[in-house]
Amino acid sequence: MKTLLQVDFDYQGPFGEVMSDALKELAATINNEPGMIWKLWTENEKTQQAGGVYLFESEETAQAYLEMHTARLTTMGIPNVQGQVFNINESLSAINQGPFNLSS
């Protein structure tokens, strides 16, 4: 079953295009993670937070990525990583134009 992963952490920047330039190589490697379908990068300069919302093929691949990513962020000096794994209600998501076809 496809699984959503939400990750948030305190982040002092950079943000915007500077963040994009600095993290392009990392972003490209995320595409190779087992079970990863897509990622939306999130950032909020006002609250000094960043993170992402991911869609994975299964809960197992989402959990494995969360463990690896938490360790990676910790080595980058980001100690407070919050990650949550969610099942997706396909019926209700379809009513609200969920951005993906979950049945395929």
From TrEMBL:
<protein>
    <submittedName>
        <fullName>Monooxygenase</fullName>
    </submittedName>
</protein>
<dbReference type="InterPro" id="IPR014910">
    <property type="entry name" value="YdhR"/>
</dbReference>
<keyword id="KW-0560">Oxidoreductase</keyword>
<dbReference type="InterPro" id="IPR011008">
    <property type="entry name" value="Dimeric_a/b-barrel"/>
</dbReference>
<dbReference type="GO" id="GO:0004497">
    <property type="term" value="F:monooxygenase activity"/>
</dbReference>
<dbReference type="Pfam" id="PF08803">
    <property type="entry name" value="ydhR"/>
</dbReference>
<keyword id="KW-0503">Monooxygenase</keyword>
